[in-house]
Design goal:
Helices cover 1% and strands 44% of the residues. The protein is mainly β and 429 residues long. It folds into 3 domains: 23-89, no CATH class; 98-190, Immunoglobulin-like, CATH 2.60.40; 208-428, Jelly Rolls, CATH 2.60.120.200. The strands form 8 sheets. Strands 18, 19, 22, 23, 25, 26, 27, 28 and 32 form a 9-stranded mixed β-sheet that branches. Strand 29 and strand 30 (373-378) form a beta hairpin. The longest helix is centred in the middle third of the chain and has 4 residues, at 208-211. The chain is elongated. Residues 1-21, 50-54 and 245-249 have low confidence and may be disordered.
Length: 429
C-alpha cells in the first residue's frame, strides 16, 4: 500500500462568531488523486484553543475526523484522527464611531460628564457639543488605538431631564479646516441642574410695594392654582382657550394637558393639537381688573410659541395684553393692544433679563395691571413699564397656551412637540 499525505485546503477559514471562535469552517472541495477524485464535503472542525484579544495570535490543533473513502480502483483513502498543528490569528472587527460608556440615557448629576467610545483609525480628533453642534461643551481629544475619551461640561442653567450631547469625529486635527467628519448624538439623563425656585405660593410679592406703594394686597385663592399639587384643572376657574385657531391642523384643545409634582402643569404641543387654557369668561373673580391687580406665574417656556396673556375673546372689547410671547426658541416679547385691537406698544425683553435660558429653566413672570401704569416683572425685577393713557378699563381673562406658528414671517420656524411648564399661577388684588 502506498501512503500519501493528504492536504486539505483551509484557505477560506470562517470564524464561528465575532468573538474568537473555537472552530473553523472548511468549504466543500475536490481533490484530484492519481487513482481518482476525492470529494471532501464542507465541515466544521474544532480547535483545541482560541486566540484572545490580549493575545490574538495563537497556535492550536486541528482535529480531522477519521474517514475512509473507496476509490474507483478499489483502493481506500483514509484520514486519521491525528491532530495537526495549526497557527491562526483572530483579528478584532474594525472600530466604529460609537459611545461605549456610559449607557445611553444614563443619569448624570455632576460636571464634568465623562464619555468614552471608539472611532475608525482615519479620524484624528473627537469633540463634543450641544445637540445642535453650535456650542462646544467637550474639549478636543486625539484618539489613540481607536479609543477616545471626552470630558463634557453641561451648560449652567440646563434643566433636569434628557440632554443630547453632540459628538463629532474629524479626519483633520483640531483647529484645521477641510477633511471629513462623522457625527452622532448621545442622550443622558441630566439631574445636575438647579432645582426650580422654592415655592412662595400665596405669599405677597415684595415688588408690589414698589409698584403700588401704600396699598395692601391680598392673595386671591379662588383665581389662583398651584399646579404642582394638582392632578387636574380647577373647573371652576379654567376653561379651554377658544380664542384663535392658527391653521386648521393645529386647533387649541386640552389634549396636551398633564401634571407632575416637579414641573406642575405641562401644556404639551404636538401635531395632534395645541393646548390652551383660559380663566372663565365674564366671571369677575377670575378676570383680572385694571385696578392695580397683579398676576404671576412660575414657568419654563417652550421653544415654540408659549404665551401668557390677557384677552376677552368672546366679547366686543378686543383689548389684548401679551405679558409675554416667546417666538421660536428665545425671543420673549411684550405687546399691548387697545379695544379695537390696534397695537399700542411692543417690547422685546433682552436676554440679560434672565439668569439662565428660560426655555431650559424656571423663572417667575408677573404683570401689574394698574390704572395709570402697566409693568412686567421677571424674577422679582421690573423689566418693562408703560404709562397708561385712555386705556379701556376692562377686566380681562387670563390665558396660558403653547401655540404653534405655521411659518409666518413674524414668528419664524418652530419645532414640535414642545412643553410649556407652569408650576403655579397666583393672583393678588
Amino acid at each position: 500500500m502506498t501512503c500519501r499525505a493528504l492536504l486539505l485546503s483551509v484557505s477560506a477559514l470562517a470564524l464561528a462568531s465575532a468573538a474568537h471562535a473555537q472552530s473553523i469552517s472548511i468549504p466543500a472541495q475536490t481533490i484530484t488523486l492519481p487513482n481518482g477524485t476525492l470529494s471532501v464535503p464542507a465541515t466544521t472542525l474544532p480547535l483545541a484553543d482560541t486566540a484572545t484579544s490580549s493575545s490574538p495570535s495563537s497556535t492550536g490543533t486541528l482535529a480531522l475526523p477519521a474517514t475512509s473513502t473507496t476509490m474507483s480502483d478499489g483502493s481506500k483513502v483514509t484520514t486519521s484522527a491525528a491532530n495537526a498543528a495549526l497557527t491562526y490569528t483572530a483579528t478584532p472587527p474594525p472600530a466604529t464611531f460609537a459611545v461605549t460608556s456610559p449607557a445611553s440615557g444614563a443619569t448624570e448629576t455632576t460636571n464634568p460628564v465623562a464619555l468614552k467610545g471608539t472611532v475608525q483609525s482615519n479620524y484624528v480628533n473627537v469633540a463634543g457639543y450641544n445637540s445642535t453642534f453650535v456650542t462646544k461643551i467637550c474639549p478636543d481629544f486625539t484618539p489613540s488605538g481607536g479609543a477616545w475619551t471626552l470630558s463634557c461640561t453641561i451648560p449652567s442653567g440646563t434643566a433636569n431631564g434628557t440632554y443630547q450631547i453632540g459628538i463629532a469625529a474629524f479626519t483633520v486635527p483640531a483647529g484645521q479646516g477641510g477633511g471629513s467628519s462623522e457625527s452622532l448624538t448621545f442622550p443622558i439623563n441630566w439631574q445636575g441642574g438647579s432645582s426650580p425656585p422654592p415655592s412662595s405660593y400665596g405669599s405677597i410679592p415684595a415688588i408690589l410695594a414698589t409698584l403700588n406703594p401704600g396699598h395692601t394686597y391680598a392673595f386671591n385663592a379662588a383665581a389662583s392654582q398651584n399646579f404642582q399639587t394638582s392632578t387636574s384643572l380647577n373647573s371652576a376657574l379654567w376653561g379651554q382657550d377658544n380664542c384663535c385657531v392658527y391653521g386648521a391642523s393645529y386647533p387649541y384643545n386640552l389634549n396636551g394637558v398633564s401634571f407632575s409634582a416637579a414641573n406642575g402643569l405641562d401644556l404639551h404641543a404636538s401635531s395632534s393639537g395645541i393646548p390652551g387654557i383660559s380663566t372663565l369668561q365674564g366671571s369677575s373673580p377670575y378676570n383680572l381688573p385694571q385696578n392695580g391687580s397683579y398676576v404671576e406665574i412660575t414657568a419654563q417656556l417652550s421653544p415654540s410659541w408659549p404665551a401668557f396673556w390677557l384677552n376677552c375673546w368672546n366679547c366686543s372689547n378686543e383689548s389684548e395684553i401679551d405679558i409675554f410671547e416667546n417666538w421660536a426658541d428665545y425671543n420673549v416679547e411684550i405687546t399691548v393692544y387697545n379695544n379695537t385691537h390696534t397695537q399700542l406698544t411692543t417690547y422685546a425683553v433682552p436676554s440679560s433679563a434672565f439668569s439662565s435660558d428660560p426655555t431650559k429653566s424656571f423663572h417667575t413672570y408677573g404683570f401689574y395691571y394698574g390704572a395709570t401704569e402697566f409693568a412686567v416683572v421677571i424674577d422679582g425685577a421690573i423689566v418693562w413699564t408703560w404709562p397708561v393713557s385712555n386705556y379701556p378699563n376692562v377686566a380681562l381673562p387670563i390665558i396660558l397656551d403653547n401655540g404653534y406658528c405655521t411659518g409666518a414671517s413674524w414668528c419664524g420656524s418652530e419645532p414640535l412637540p414642545t412643553d410649556f411648564y407652569i408650576q403655579n399661577m397666583q393672583v393678588f388684588n
